[in-house]
């Protein structure tokens, strides 16, 4: 302190330039060059993307269970909305009624039809094996070199494709924990979906929340329509298959009807498996019954392909069959039966997200391009 009083002028720096150091750049991690700072931010983004991709690979099975819960919640939500059109009840009560109806159906299936279906399911593998032996003899008599072991391997793969379904029908369900988690999480989401939708919106940047909300609404509506159409197709295929097979005295009509309805949840693959099963069971009686079974299969698939699916496609995404089949192949190899079941809904959600991104890009260009053209015309 000088004799004239306290010093009020600028404090000299170490170099005597009379400039005080800015407290905003005191951190040793701060990058003063804006170009280096931009590149560092880009590098951090790429590191985050790679880390997120690695994390996704490790926890994808859990993510698939959560997505399965969303699919289940969409089906419950669709039933609740239908009840809301005719019943002036709260959402919780409507969800409870839908769940009670599902439980009542499975209770009826287990008590009234369980014994017959269990007996038919137990007899189905032996019928398939006998038909394989007949097919081998026919092929050998016609000069086709094929062994019983090869046909048995094919039949083993075929039966493993429907093994989960038949085990569920006979009370030996696999993956109980996974199904339990899907059902419980799905019920929680179906009771109050807005709570989880708001939570997902909060994860998005503030300036994108409105657009993200629109995307979520479209995804939810698409998933509801897709699942409603899928359930309608399952019911139609199951009921028509059972009625037609019973009319032509094809054995195991009830079991084949239920298997056809359940396998209809898996596009492309399920239809092929159910058709092979119907043909093998039909030919186990005689050639005429086998031809009846094949005719019934083509009739049901034609009804579903030319009547049900076009009506559904008007209100939901229309996915290319080759794209769905490819996704089913990849998901089935990587994640088993759960991946195979959820491949179609997952592709539908990806398509909705891409469509929304395309719409946002078009909107952005429509807003910015006229201003850019005007700026270029003014020479600024």
How many DSSP E strands?
0
SSE sequence, one letter per element: HHHHHHHHHHHH
* Main β sheet profile: none
Low-confidence stretches: 1-22, 158-174
Helical stretch tally: 12
Could you describe the 3D structure shown?
The protein is mainly alpha-helical and about 375 residues long. It has a domain at about 115-170 and about 205-360. About 80% of the residues lie in helices and about 0% in strands. Helix 8 runs antiparallel to helix 12. Mean pLDDT is about 75; it is low at about 1-20 and about 160-175.
Summarize the structure.
The protein is mostly helical and 380 residues long. The protein is built from twelve helices and no strands.
List the keywords.
single chain; 380 residues; mainly alpha; disordered N terminus
List the helices and strands and how they pair.
Blueprint lengths: L33 H51 L6 H21 L2 H28 L6 H14 L1 H7 L6 H16 L1 H10 L6 H39 L5 H11 L5 H15 L3 H27 L7 H58 L2
Helix pairs in contact: 1-2, 1-6, 1-8, 1-12, 3-4, 3-10, 7-8, 8-9, 8-11, 8-12, 9-10, 10-11
